[in-house]
Amino acid sequence: MPNAKLGPMNDAERRWMAGHQLRALMLGRAHGDAATVSAPSFAALDRAWEAEGAELRASSGDPNPLIQALGVALGQHLVDHHKLEWCVATDAFGTEVALYGKSGDVLVYPLNLVAKRWQRNEGAFLVTLVAAMDADIEMLQGLSR
User: Fold this and answer.
1) pLDDT tens for residues 50-108?
2) What's the CA gap between 70 and 77, in Å, rounded?
3) Which residues of 108-122 are buried (b: 16+ CB within 10 A; e: fewer)?
4) Can you list the pairs that 82-88 forms with residues at least 24 positions away whose Cβ atoms lie under 8 Å?
């Protein structure tokens, strides 16, 4: 078990997540996934990251909606592909939405992963990050069986 205290998300947090999932879908459609119905591709979200991020930086706009939408999309991919669950994690650094999987004892903070890349002014990263995370989580879960 991780050093964080884990708890379930409440209804307001689930509604917040649903809003950001919809925003990620709309961003994906606007940046190359026009026909997608459920989940945008990470290639389209990388294009959104670069285009929308450049506009936000130029206008000194609030990056949080973009960070949160992409973080939720990343997290939902990990939930769907690795049997992780959304939760609220509290540790020495505060309380944050996270993912936990008992198999492999996996704890991931997807919104924080995206926020750190904003702080470092990174370009497109999602396609590469998702591939690496998929491999790492599969390895961890395989070791725990």
Assistant:
1) 999 999 999 999 999 999 999 999 999 999 999 999 999 999 989 999 999 998 899 99
2) 11
3) bbbbebbbebbeeee
4) 82/106, 82/134, 82/137, 82/138, 82/141, 83/141, 84/108, 84/137, 86/9, 86/17, 87/6, 87/7, 87/8, 87/9, 88/6, 88/7, 88/8, 88/9, 88/13
pTM, rounded to two decimals: 0.93
Sequence-distant (6+) residues with CB within 8 A of 69 are: 20, 21, 23, 24, 27
CA atoms within 13 A on the CB side of 110: 30
Identity (one letter) of the amino acid at 39? A
For residue 11 the two structure tokens come to: 């209804």
Query: Residue 87 pairs with which residues in a beta bridge?
Result: 98
**Three-state helix/strand/coil letters over 48-65:** HHHHHHHHHHHHCCCCHH
Residue 68, both tokens? 């949160």
| DSSP letter assigned to residue 124 | S
